Amino acid sequence: MDAEYTFKIKNTLDRFNLNYIPEAHNYLKIDDEYFDFTKHNSEYSQFKNKLLVEKEIEYNEIITEKIVFHKNFLKKWISDENIPYSLEEIWQIREQCIKDLQKNNEVEIQNSSSVCFVNSPDVRDDYKP
Prior knowledge:
36% of the residues lie in helices and 5% in strands. It has a two-stranded antiparallel ribbon. It is globular. By secondary structure, the protein is mainly alpha-helical. The protein has 3 helices and 2 strands. The longest helix has 24 residues, at 87-110. It starts with 9 loop residues before the first helix and ends in a 19-residue tail after the last helix. It has helices at residues 10-15, 64-80, 87-110, and strands spanning 28-30, 33-35.
């Protein structure tokens, strides 16, 4: 994760004097085609040159195997790059970056009109026809 690809985390990275934090990013690869569903307009070309390593995992490994791999990668990165934070601190900074991304999205959603979702069961009664 860096501020170039995900600008919403710039303040957090700046606060901790980091240019980026390696993130275990999920995307789908079918044959030679890549699909990324992170954002509505996400494309593999936006992050392919930022990949440090590509590891194939199965869908049932996303929770356990991905986290173990990610934390081991971060341990090595912290050591190799002389990052002045522990794994636990980096993980918390990473979590803050994710909160930054979610918080900003919530604001955008709150400012949208629920009239657009008139057929949704979650629409308040006053918006139903």
